[in-house]
Amino acid sequence: MRWTPDALARAAGGTLIRTADRPIEGAFIDSRSPLEGGLFVPIVAARDGHDFIGAAIEGGAGAVLVQKGRTVPEGAVSVIEVEDTQAAFTRLATKRCTDFDGPVVTISGSNGKTTTRAMVAGVLGASLDSVLCTQGNLNNHLGVPLTVLGAPHEPDAMVVELGMSAPGENDALAAIAQPRVHVITSVAIEHLEFMKSIEAIAAAEAEPITRVRPGGCVVAPLDEPLLRPHLQDAGVDVLTFGPTDDCDVMISDVVVGARTRATIRVGPHAPVEVEVPLFGAHNARNAAAALAVGHRLGLPLEAMVDALASVRPVGDRGRAVQWREHLLVADCYNANPGSVEVALGSLARLDRSGPKVAVLADMLELGPTEVQLHRESGELAARLGLDAVLGFGPLSAHTVEAASAGGIRAEHFEDIESLAAALRDALGTDAGGAALLKGSRGMKLERVLDAL
User: Fold this and answer.
1) 52, 205, 215, 383: which has the fewest Cβ within 10 Å?
2) pLDDT band per the 50, 70, 90 thresholds, residue 21
């Protein structure tokens, strides 16, 4: 987003108390990562961002917000005084989306948000010149404003990921973005420490529906029963995806490997073969959601399919790598019982001649049922007939215990080096083995790849 000083002050609901003769472009909140010519927004939290205004100006800020009563900084920057810097930041982002004429696509869900956003951005980018998309994990009350105020400054479309850990957060983020299309990827047990029940999770992931602009639509999985009451009362069009004939976008014939392949029928079009360079059957669902978005926006199907074939994993989310003669899948960015279930199922479905090994680290923020939920993952691994489960982290000891009781090899480890050595042993020297590395972000399970 670009502003003149006067326009910035009006949009922020503040008072322009100093004008500098330089353009203002984009925004930032961390003085350690300054944006040349950008607006510095000092957030008052555990640390007071006003203490770092000087560093932001030295870093090249073109303007700063300050709360009333604070010292006006020295420097050749525009200064806008506001009642509350974070509220002004939200106001700027909301106005940006209000004034934007192109499609805004928002994405919520328990699993698959980040991969789906990459797929949606790829699908849109195949036909549009410029697509603004969430980067990294900028999906919260600060990340969403940073995204929509950032580059490219004159996009043809926006793709905005929404992240939540408590009721009301998705609604607040969608109120900023004001989507024309909202995608719900899935509903699964997550953040139970704060959300309390799966029904509450479904309601939270559905919150953005009420923020979809008139004439817009919701894209959602038809096989998520907890979403149905929210979809029935949506008040806007609903496009569904899933494995059954009554879905608007139907998925069939999924083949799991280092690349996922599926047959997908989009609306009235003949079924097409879709391939994405990501591991896991769930990525066929993510691709279907992205195709539904593009279909709603009238984009050509062939170009969308070609774009999906070029999508790359975002971080360690289903990233497949070759190690010696074995396939390793790094899915280390996040984990909850639902995502572990689908990942284990995909591992079991792999057509491999060697052993299949699940390296499972702790799933965090699951609340009082965390022990039982970890046990259920171990029980599932045994039922699927995997060759071994290797656990890492205190909670994963329960996963290992349950897997062992189910009759498969299962070991627990306290350090990464021992875990990596056990993985080498479990895969053996024969070609064709496969291993899944799955755990919550805080467990940093990608270190196993470094050790190998």
Assistant:
1) 215
2) confident
Q: Which residues are bridge partners to 161 per DSSP?
A: 107
Strands (E), 381-444: 388-392, 409-413, 434-438
Q: How far apart are CA 21 and CA 24, in angstroms?
A: 10
Cβ atoms within 10 Å of 175's Cβ, excluding its own: 16
- In DSSP notation, 24-92 reads EE-EES-TTS--TTPEE---BSSSBGGGGHHHHHHTT-SEEEEETTSPPPPSSSEEEEES-HHHHHHHH
d(CA 363, CA 415): 17
pLDDT for the residue numbered 192 = 64
Asked whether 260 and 284 are in contact (CB, 8 A), the reply is yes
What is the overall mean pLDDT for the chain? 94
Q: Which range among 272-276, 292-296, 327-331 shows the weakest confidence by mean pLDDT? A: 327-331
Phi–psi pair at 61, nearest 5 degrees: -55, 145
* Helical H segments across 266-415, by residue range: 282-296, 301-308, 337-349, 370-383, 396-405
Residue 226 DSSP class: G
Which strand (E) or helix (H) includes residue 220?
strand 217-221
- Whether pLDDT at 191 is above 70: no
Backbone angles phi, psi at 190, to 5 degrees: -160, 150
Query: Given the DSSP bridges, would you call strands 356-361 and 63-67 parallel, antiparallel or unpaired?
Result: unpaired
| Dihedral, CA of residue 166, residue 167, residue 172 and residue 178, to nearest 10 | 110
Residue 96 structure tokens: 């940006």
The residue ranges of DSSP E strands in 227-285, in sequence order, are 237-242, 249-255, 260-266, 272-276
Chain centroid, CA 168 distance in Å: 18
Q: Which residues contact 53 (CB under 8 A, 6 or more apart)?
A: 31, 40, 42, 64, 66, 73
Query: Do the beta carbons of residue 102 and residue 159 sit within 8 Å?
Result: no
CB 375 within 8 A of CB 383: no
Distances (CA, A) of 105 to 111, 126, 131, 212, 221: 17, 16, 11, 10, 16
Instruction: Write the pLDDT tens digit of every residue in 167-179.
Output: 999 999 999 999 9
The size of the chain, in residues, is 452
Q: What is the pLDDT of residue 365?
A: 84
pLDDT at 193: 66
Query: Is residue 391 exposed (0-12), middle (13-18) or buried (19+ Cβ within 10 Å)?
Result: buried
